[in-house]
Automatic annotation (TrEMBL), chain A:
Gene3D superfamilies: Cupredoxins - blue copper proteins. One of its GO terms (molecular function) is cytochrome-c oxidase activity. Residues 81-148 form the Cytochrome oxidase subunit II copper A binding domain. This is Cytochrome c oxidase subunit II. It is found in: Cell envelope. It comes from Thermalbibacter longus.
From TrEMBL, chain B:
The lineage of its organism: Bacteria, Pseudomonadati, Thermomicrobiota, Thermomicrobia, Thermomicrobiales. This is Cytochrome c oxidase subunit 1. It comes from the Bacteria. Cytochrome c oxidase is the component of the respiratory chain that catalyzes the reduction of oxygen to water. Subunits 1-3 form the functional core of the enzyme complex. CO I is the catalytic subunit of the enzyme. Electrons originating in cytochrome c are transferred via the copper A center of subunit 2 and heme A of subunit 1 to the bimetallic center formed by heme A3 and copper B. Belongs to the heme-copper respiratory oxidase family. GO terms for cellular component: plasma membrane. Its EC number is 7.1.1.9. Pathway: Energy metabolism; oxidative phosphorylation. It is an enzyme of class 7 (translocase). It catalyses: 4 Fe(II)-[cytochrome c] + O2 + 8 H(+)(in) = 4 Fe(III)-[cytochrome c] + 2 H2O + 4 H(+)(out). It comes from Thermalbibacter longus. Residues 565-583 have a biased composition (Low complexity). Residues 546-583 are annotated as: Disordered.
Amino acid sequence: MRIERYEKIFMALTLVVLLAALAAIGVGVFAAEVHLPAPAGRVDPRQIRRTAPFDQPGVREVAPGEYEAVIIARAWAFEPNEIRVPRGSTVRFRVASADVIHGFLVENTNINVMVIPGQVAEVAARFDRPGEYVFLCHEYCGFGHHQMFGKVIVE
Amino acid sequence: MVESALKLERARYERSALVEWLTTVDHKKIGILYFWSSLAFLLIGGLLALLIRTQLIVPDNTFLGPQTYNEVFTMHGTIMIFLVVMPLNAAFFNFFVPLMIGARDVAFPRLNAFSYWAFLFGSLLLLSSFLFGAAPDGGWFGYANLTSSRLYSPGLNIDFWVMGLQVLGVATLASALNFFVTIVNMRAPGMSLMRMPVFVWMTLVTAVLILLAFPSLTVGLVMIMFDRYFGTNFFNPAAGGDPVIWQHLFWIFGHPEVYILILPPMGMISEILPTFSRKPLFGYTFVVFAGIVIAFLSFGVWAHHMFAVGLGPVPNAVFATTTMLIAIPTGVKIFNWLGTLWGGAIEMKTALLFAASFIAMFTIGGISGVMHASVPVDYWQTDSYFVVAHFHYVLFGGSLLAIMAAIYYWFPKMFGRMLDERLGKLHFWLTLIGFNLTFFPMHFLGVDGMPRRVFTYSADMGWDLWNLVASIGAYLLGASTLLLFVNMLTTLRKPADAPADPWDGRTLEWAIPSPPPAHNFDVVPVVRGRDAFWIEKYGAEEVVGPAPERHGAESGHNPHNPHNAGSGDEAGHGSSAGHGQSAHIHLPPPSWFPLTTAAGLTLMGAGMVVHATESLASLGFPIVGLGIAMVVVSLLGWTFEPIHEESHA
């Protein structure tokens, strides 16, 4: 089969672009340690309110400047829907669903994870700038999907 | 020739026009049925899109309530994918694949009719949900466990969705088998695989994709049905089920589905660009193999819809890689189309304008697609309006623009009338401007963080301006679509005077009159190379293979100009009608059984929906039983139906 010279050139070009993109992923994942959400445990949705740590949803300090926020996502609200942390703190969110699939996205951070019933989603971010960071459910979950949001207040 | 064929038919079946259409097994009539039904559904789906854009035109709007909004966006997606783009592709498969390969019909004409009726009735079952105020509201992706649980999705909404899609799935699978067998077995002598028009190639590839992908959807839908009706717990995490399984099953169907929607339009583009550039397709082999490679890779990329699920770094990295790989064959195709236009004697017809705009718009959609492939970037974009912008550039800017091109290109062949070019160009520019006005701002909205599938947004989010622009664009698109209908309907009132070969075409469908006679070809054509008809008209520039031998006396009778090219003259008709072969053309007789089988199948689905009601639940299973009986009796009748051989002499 005869291959035109131009075809060879643009095949080579596409290959180069792709290899560069692949290299970028590799560097991102392994060198820069981009956080990829992975299930951090399982929780029975029926027992969620009796299972630690979800029996006490809320935010607590685990070390100086480090906070853990335990959030229950349910149709159609987050519990709690307001979290206050001081500026410069790192917050580790542990989110689980009490019913259907929800999403958890915090604006202006890299946090974007699906909250699968049965799984605990664990994601973290550092909040350096004071202000309000809206977090919302972005996975369609039925009638009240649009009103399912809350905020992180950084003081 | 047309007259004699018609007389033959009329003598055999003294039937009304309505009965003729209901019982037809002619691939061209079935293609026309697909064409008009899916265009009608396009109007419905478009209307729903306008409702969505009207709701979002200002912040805090209360035009639609949240429940209505959810139903509207679910049905918009489901209709546009299953009831518009797929059947519009099927309309062109049906009408043109047999013509392009020089066949008289598809391999299984009655199965073909069954596919159409099952498609129509399944669509009507799905749409009838509006009449009961229970339109599906789970999104076109129907994520379990929202959809699989009667606790979270009470009502008939999801039942209509599951049953409608099951019937549509049967129709699609039957159609895919039919076209696979047709293309493999029924090509004219000399039409080797690598001489087939690219549209035929892409139809073949799409048929394989459908055969491998749709069973996965069927299995998933059966599991949802069992969870809802019979208390199984496939997707119920409280009982040890896992809702993520649905996502895997759905997307291993869902991603090939994207290529099922785009590969046939790519084939159309590969026919239209060479015709209006008066050049052969640049890199035919590459375009064909790129299509095959895309189809193969499409089964290895589904988890890129699930990066936010939390599958872990390794699966995410693997699926990111395979997703990026798809960019290679796609990029090759884009360069090949540009290479086809390069240096060609380009004729700026409406069909070419649409085809050329397809390349540009599809490229934008392809680039944002590669952006999604990168996992860290995807976290930004998942479930935001950026994704909405991306797939509308692929499915509207890609599939639908190509289908518009195909409508302008093939309308004369289907209906014997040329669409108005001036209205067509107006339609084109309005579409292109309206489309970009609607969907380009959605990139900005997505980057600004506007999530998908929310029925309204508050005024302090800063999303007002681009939403307003998008809505204005949507109204423009609506107006432009009406122009297409005005153009088609006024054209249909004119006399059928289109020449057989209005565009100086390259493929075999242009070798026969417009519209083609019932038996397509008086004499089965002999193919000497790619662009078979072009070679017959102008000779080949490069060396083409020898023509395969024909049997008997026919081989001496001008074998290479067999099909009255461009002739409206009586002499051409007379000579071909007197030709030895046309007297023995066997046309399959019409049949009621495809229609009744499809009706029985749909009745089964409708019975399941009835079973889920509160007041009429006891009627449900009897209706299902009635449907089964109808299917069984129809299939028996189908099997033992006489073939009327004697009436063809």
